Amino acid sequence: MTVQGIFLSPFCEEGEWKLDPVAPCFSTHLKSITIREFGGTKGELHVVTFLLESALILERLVISCSLDKFSGGVGRQKEVHDQLMLSRRSRTCAIEFS
Question: How crowded is residue 48: how many other Cβ atoms within 10 Å of its Cβ?
């Protein structure tokens, strides 16, 4: 079975989103994550951090920022990138912003 995507509603309260229990495939099979319309909110960072902490063999995380929502420019992207690099369980995972 191949999962093409997970949709998280933008209407969830902060801290409300949970994936419990974590699907076993997250730690053993998940190799790539693409996030679109990323705004850099505290709630979004929480979800991305959770995914990075759960995916043991993750090879690549691509984050496409929403120009309408993401503020702070390149400096903020670097700050978020550095924060996420510390959260990853897979030390070989590359994190890219587009």
Answer: 21
